[in-house]
Amino acid sequence: MKVLWFRRDLRLSDNRAMYELEKVLAEDSDATWVAIFHLDSSFLNEQCLHHAYFFQNVKAFEEECESNGIHLYYIYGDVHTAFSELIYYVPELSDVYFNEDEASEEANRDTEISDYLSGKGVKMHPFKDAHFHDSSEVRKKDGEYYEVFTPYFKKWRTLQKPRPYPCYLAKWKDKQASLSIPQTKKKDILHDYINQSDVHWNAIYERDAHTRLDWFLKEILIGYDEERDKLENDGTSKLSPFIKTGRISVRTIYDNMASSIEEGRRGAEAFLTELAWRDFYNMIHVHYPHLKKQELKEKYRNMQWKFNEEQWEKWKQGETGFPIVDAAMRQLNSEGWLHNRGRMIAASFLVKDYLFDWRRGEDYFRKQLIDYDSSSNPGGWQWAASTGTDAVPYFRVFSPTRQSERFDPAGTYIKRYIPELKDVPVTYIHEPWKIDSTLQEQFHCILNQDYPKPDIDHKAARNRAINIFKGV
Fold first, then answer.
1. CATH number of 131-165+205-289
2. Exposed e or buried b for every residue in 81-97, given b needs 16+ CB within 10 A?
3. Residues marked as catalytic
């Protein structure tokens, strides 16, 4: 019996492992198969927006499978427990088809499971699916991997991109085996976890990913290069949560925007660059497995980071007194998603203004982001902290005020997430601490009562950060 193991590829179209299994089913008239999903207890033991969103997608995927006549079986527990159960109930298991992960903890998990199942006589069939190019495909002439994005992208851009894989799994539903693996308790665990979340998303089906892609291509792509940094507009693709959960593949996205790419449209080129960053950070993570825990630049591995519990809570809750930072954090906490410009602003503030260890921020984003990527997120945080590849130079410190004026000039974004400032005019919206005491009541914003004053001076904090980095 052959098993199709779904993971972060929750879709019934353009799925490499599914495509490869279907070829076998077509060639072998006696072959039978089942679909499984591993409910990892380590993830279900942590309640956060990231996991809540993912498991709500899993539940939606289960419904999609059932509507297509496909039975999705759950196995539950840690790696050894779950796959021991699979072997126990499916002793005739011969092959496992799955789309592999290349980097860090996920790759280690794959190795552990593969070693265990191979030891039981099961043949593993891993496939590349999540990225355009895996970590070994984009290389320098001497065979070394790139450490800087721009030359990487130039080479990446010249390589032929894989096309979508046609999948018709529903046509093989009559060849499914019926398993006796207990399901009621596992489904109850999943449902209980989902019900504990304070946030419930609606657009979590495969069809929603394609709807969003169609909308992006028709309404946003043409001006993406100019609009993507504007915080007040819906000028980004917002496809990242769908990519994260595998509701849509990067191949399908590329295939649908191919004509715009071929015509050299600037919006398409700009978006293609963003997709290339995923491949780049995946490659970096494979070659530097400590990306989440250790600075890429060795000289900064002994940085003396600061920590203050009160400031940590202010940053997390969006109460630093810098409106653009606070709006970004409040959007993150309420929606589980954050505009990339907002991510950079919030990260820069935590690391450069508060001088907090970037790992704290990276882990908080891990919990909150519904599109969290275990390679891109630490890569981005190391960029902001000036410790990683292609990092912003240490002497370039984002000014919250300047970022706010540039990317939210009218304060529209700020007022959307900070209602305390809704009556503050543009004159003060980027620096509310400058509101004269006689005007605070008029603007319905009493400082340190309705909205906090900053506890640091950005200019002084900037100079402090530069001197500390310079002295390392």
1. 1.25.40.80
2. ebbebbeeebeebebbb
3. 274, 277, 305, 340, 358, 381
